[in-house]
Specification:
With about 350 residues, the protein is an alpha/beta fold. It is about 40% helix and about 15% strand. It contains 14 helices and 14 strands. β9, α6 and β10 form a beta-alpha-beta unit. InterPro entries: Bact_solute-bind_prot3, SBP_3_CS, Solute-binding_3/MltF_N. One of its GO terms (biological process) is amino acid transport. Belongs to the bacterial solute-binding protein 3 family.
C-alpha cells in the first residue's frame, strides 16, 4: 500500500468514527445511572426559580432544567433542584454537586475561561438597573449621588455598580448581602435607598415588597447581562446536549412546533421539522440521545416562547415583554443554529 493510499484509509476511518454516535461522556452516564439531572438554581426568585409551599419549583431557569431532563431521560420531572447562593453556585458545579447551573448567571469572559465552566447559550438577555422608592423623587440613576445601595455579594452586579458610580463621578454606600432575597428584604426594611440587580430580578423582587406600588425601576440599563446555563468544561458531549436543548426550543418556536401540536408535527412534510421531532435523520444519535429527544422537550416543557411567556411574560405578575428575547424573525436577537 502506498503512503498516499494509507493516508486515505486512515482519513476515511477518522471520518467514519466522527460521523457515528456520540462517545458516552461521564456526565451523561452519571445522570442516567442516577435517574435524574442535578440542577443548580437560585434560592428563590419569582419567574426564574422559586419553590411553592409544597416544595414544587417553577420558573424560567427551572423549566430549562426540566427541558434537559426531558431530552436526556424522557421525563421532565426527573430533576433534583439544588438551591444555591451566588457565592455557592460555581463551586457546586466545579465539584460535581450539580450537572448544570441554571441560575440567572451572567456569561462573561472571566467566568467562561477561568472557572472551568462552559456557558451553553443565553436563556434571557438582561441588563442591570436600579429600583428606588418613589417618595425619593428620583427619576434617573444620575441623581443617586450619595445613596445607599443594596447589592448581592459575589456577583457581576457589584462590579458594574462600582464601575457606573466611578464613571459618573458619584459616591455611594454599598449595603452588601449574601443573597438576592436578602437585598430585597434590606430594601423593604429601609436599610438602603436603592436596590440594584438585573432588571428582570428587580421586577420580580418588586412583586414581593410589602407595598409594590411604592417602588419603581429607573429607566437606565447600565450593563449587558446575557443570562444562561453553564456546565463543567471537559465533557463535550454533555456540553452539546445542554446547548442543543436550548437550540431545539428556539428552533421549535421558529418552526411553529408547540406543546399542543408536536405530536401532529411528526407527520409534517417540512424537513426541518422532521429533523427536530426525530422522524428524519440521526440527530439524537449524534448527541447520544433517543431520536425523539427534542420532541420530548417540546411536548413536556414547550418551545422557548411558551417557556418565556409562562414564567415571565406579559400575562404573569412580572409582565416582561419579549424585547431582545424575541426571535430574530420578530425583532429580537434570539437565534439558534439549525438542526441538520
Amino acid at each position: 500500500m502506498t503512503r498516499f493510499a494509507a493516508a486515505l484509509v486512515v482519513g476515511a476511518a477518522t471520518v467514519a468514527l466522527s460521523a457515528g454516535a456520540a462517545i458516552a461522556g461521564p456526565t451523561l452516564d452519571a445522570v442516567k445511572d442516577r435517574g435524574e439531572v442535578a440542577c443548580g438554581v437560585s434560592t428563590g426568585l419569582s419567574g426564574f426559580s422559586i419553590p411553592d409551599s409544597t416544595g414544587t419549583w417553577s420558573g424560567l431557569d427551572v423549566d430549562f432544567c426540566r427541558a434537559v431532563a426531558a431530552a436526556v431521560l424522557g421525563d421532565a420531572d426527573k430533576v433534583k433542584f439544588v438551591p444555591l447562593t451566588a457565592k455557592e453556585r460555581f463551586t457546586a458545579l466545579q465539584s460535581g454537586e450539580i450537572d448544570v447551573l441554571s441560575r440567572v448567571t451572567t456569561w462573561t469572559l472571566t467566568r467562561d475561561v477561568s472557572l472551568g465552566l462552559n456557558f451553553t447559550g443565553v436563556t434571557f438577555y438582561d441588563g442591570q438597573g436600579f429600583m428606588i422608592r418613589k417618595d425619593l423623587g428620583v427619576t434617573s440613576a444620575t441623581e443617586l449621588d450619595g445613596a445607599s445601595v443594596c447589592v448581592a455579594a459575589g456577583t457581576t452586579t457589584e462590579l458594574n455598580l462600582a464601575d457606573y458610580f466611578r464613571l459618573k463621578g458619584m459616591e455611594y454606600n454599598p449595603v452588601v448581602f449574601s443573597a438576592i432575597s436578602e437585598t430585597a428584604q434590606g430594601f423593604d426594611s429601609g436599610r438602603c435607598d436603592v436596590l440594584t440587580s438585573d432588571q428582570s430580578q428587580l421586577y420580580s423582587l418588586r412583586t414581593k415588597l410589602d407595598d409594590p406600588e411604592s417602588a419603581m425601576v429607573l429607566p437606565e440599563v447600565i450593563s449587558k447581562e446575557p443570562l444562561g446555563p453553564a456546565v463543567r468544561q471537559g465533557d463535550d458531549q454533555w456540553f452539546n446536549i445542554v446547548k442543543w436543548t436550548l437550540f431545539a426550543q428556539l428552533n421549535a418556536e421558529e418552526l411553529g412546533v408547540t406543546m399542543d401540536n408536536v405530536e401532529d408535527m411528526k407527520n409534517a412534510d417540512n424537513p426541518s421539522i422532521k429533523r427536530l421531532v426525530g422522524t428524519d435523520g440521526d440527530m439524537g444519535e449524534k448527541l447520544g440521545l433517543s431520536a425523539d429527544w427534542a420532541a420530548n422537550v417540546v411536548a413536556q416543557v414547550g418551545n422557548y416562547g411558551e417557556m418565556f411567556e409562562r414564567n415571565v411574560g406579559m400575562d404573569t405578575p412580572l409582565e416582561i415583554a419579549r424585547g431582545l428575547n424575541a426571535l430574530w424573525t420578530a425583532g429580537g436577537i434570539q437565534y439558534a443554529p439549525p438542526i441538520r
